[in-house]
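Q: What structure does this chain adopt?
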Amino acid sequence: MSYYPKNAGELLQAAELVLALALNPGTPPALLARLKAGLEALARAYVDAVAAQRGGISAQDAARAARDVSDDLTDRKGKAFFQACRYGEGGAALMDELQRAWGGGRMSAAFNQPDADQVNTFDRFFALIDARADLSLPRAAYDEFKAAHEDMKAKVRAEEAADAARDTFAAQVQAAGKAFGPAYRFLIRDLLFNEGEDLVRDHLPRFAR
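A:
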């Protein structure tokens, strides 16, 4: 057994206990004074950073799920549009024009790109097609495809923002842990040397080793 936290889970347990002890009127004065001298604030920063990181993970998962749904819808609407073009009055000639607008290659390859690349591909596609007044398109199918694409683009950007936020939260947890961990270990050494092990054993956690 050890009084010193070794991993993130143990460090969080220690920080949460520090906060509880700082609010407990039964905490011995010698311990409370040391907590109030700065460790409580460091513990709060660490606990809050971990909570923000967990919230960021949940937000990232939600953003990814929403992007997946939108991606599936965009693929369905896009393929329905191209099918309508292929078998409509424009036929092969129209499909050749559309293929050039999406950058060439197979239609399936365009839809199987990574989502951010697909967004860029069809951003260019819609810009080119919207500039063409000479093309006879199945307008309803085109508008549905474009609307689905715009929604997918928004969802991709939201996921990218959630990814960036999660990276920020992780850095904040690391920084807060680097501040709290050494201060907590110093508390243990201080108490053991100046107050005795009974105070430490009775009020602070021990971790299995």
